[in-house]
Amino acid sequence: MRVLLINPYYPISETPSPPLGLAYLGAALEAAGVEVRLLDLVVFPYSKKMLESVLHSFSPHFVGVTAVTMTFDYAAKVIKDVKSIDPLIWTIMGGPHVSFCAQETMRALPQLDFICLGEGEETVVQLVREAQDGCQWNNVKGLVYRQGHEIHSTGPRDAITDMDAIPLPARSLIPLGRYRALHMPVSMTTSRGCPFQCIFCVGRQMLGPRVRYRNSSKVVDELEYLNGLAFHQINIADDLFTANKRHCLAVCDEIIARKIETRWACFGRVDTVTPEILERMKAAGCDAVGFGVESANAAILRTIKKGITVEQVLGAVAMCSDAGITPHASFILGLPGETPQTLRETTDFVKQLKDKGALCGFHLLAPFPGTEVREEHDRLGIKILTSDWSQYHANRAIVETPAVTREMLDQIVIEWEEEFDERLGEIKRLRGTGDATEAEASLLTNLEHTVLIYDLMMGHVIEEHGSWHNDGVPVSGPDVLETLVDRIVNTTQHRHADVASSLASATARGSLLYEEKQGQVRWKWADYI
């Protein structure tokens, strides 16, 4: 059997990382003897013609597409295109969005054959085996499927209890080189599940309230492998890495014992960090911890079941600063009970945290399917303005409260974005005069490289303009790079200096390669590393 896994388009502004969930699915399928390919539309430009080419060359029996709420429409288009190209291919979707609105999705998308609920490794493997053994879909737990005009569900599958029994992600399927060229982080997990009950989050509903941990030695084996891939940072993508002190310290101690020089970041809670934990994390290479603060108003924090106080936030930020770790505090505007006064409380608190060295950011409430804030929005006083899933990116308001309008919420985020842009402009000025710090200059330069390289990737520019006949004349690396730069400048709107700088950086990192063969020079992205 052959399975094609697809990662739908996801904006680069959301700082995507290589698709870890699909890599886990791919590994489980390969371990079961299934031939797997992965098509990543985050870093490859999509067209139906390109999809048709892949389907004809690989001839998959199944095409599986993942989706969060924001990417659902992109995923649905891919499913429709698959069926229009070859109606006999079975189509399946998974991920948090469809897990919590499965019936609705199946009714709205007749081209979809299956939905995988929750954790997908065991379900997808069993589904593929059932396709070989008789297509008795009711035997597959964790599945929603179509039979004639009826939609059936086999109910949720029990959570996987032994995390170490799950095969390591098949990252060989992923074009890691493209993410590295874009200066994106690479991610891994050390656990699944979240014991907390925040009403706006799907994490607990998706992976369960019981946290299941991987063996610390195996965790660090994977981290050490990722560290060798030359990404600028590794993100530990657990819902809450600091949930269990013993596990957290065991991972850190293993990194320290092996003397691994690395940089990583994680998510924490302000009531689960201590000086001991943070100092050990810093010694193990952690340079940033993200805290979901959400609001500075005590009543809102109680309503959303966050279970923290502003005093704990201030304490955690101070402990991070003492340990030499950068605290990142994120806030959600438009939560139940939001008023102009609570918005002022939060924005004033953000200024206080920034003065203490924290990096802060705003999101706007997106009431995702499966969350209490969506299911109980009337009781909570939340007005949901749209179910256009493409708007669920949390950067513009799609909810209102009785006291706060969409425009009021948007204005705060727009002002924050403008402040950030002004800061980048100031750094650019300082870089030009030589007065920017090394960290400031690096931040801006990396951002500029990311924007330009992404434009080249998604415009297929290297593929279309990165090959030419050299008439057998030997060339040096600088000469052939300069020729590439000239060809790109002649066909795009980018400035010569910007293209030269970005491509020189990509080449130096091994993300952009060329070969000279029989008088032909050919440049290409180092997709697989």
What is the 3D shape? globular
Average residue pLDDT:
95
CATH secondary-structure class of the largest domain: Alpha Beta
Within the CATH hierarchy, at the fold level, what is the topology of the largest domain?
TIM Barrel
Write the SSE topology.
Blueprint: E1 2-7, H1 20-31, E2 35-40, H2 48-58, E3 62-66, H3 72-85, E4 90-94, H4 96-100, H5 102-108, E5 114-116, H6 121-133, E6 143-147, E7 150-153, H7 176-181, E8 186-188, E9 191-192, H8 203-207, E10 212-213, H9 216-227, E11 234-236, H10 245-258, E12 264-268, H11 275-283, E13 286-294, H12 298-303, H13 310-323, E14 326-333, H14 340-355, E15 359-364, H15 372-375, H16 377-380, E16 383-384, E17 399-400, H17 406-433, H18 438-458, H19 461-465, E18 467-469, H20 477-489, H21 496-508, E19 512-517, E20 520-525
Helix pairs in contact: 1-6, 2-3, 9-10, 10-11, 11-13, 18-21, 20-21
Structure report:
Strands 2-1-3-4-5-6-7 form a 7-stranded mixed beta sheet, sandwiched between helices. With 529 residues, the protein is of the alpha/beta class. The model has no long low-confidence stretch (mean pLDDT 95). The two termini are 26 Å apart. The protein contains 21 helices and 20 strands. Strand 6 (143-147) and strand 7 (150-153) form a beta hairpin.
What's this entry about, in short?
Helix content is 44%, strand content 17%. The protein is of the alpha/beta class.
Name a few traits of the molecule.
529 residues, seven-stranded mixed beta sheet, Arc Repressor Mutant, subunit A, 3 domains, Rossmann fold, TIM Barrel
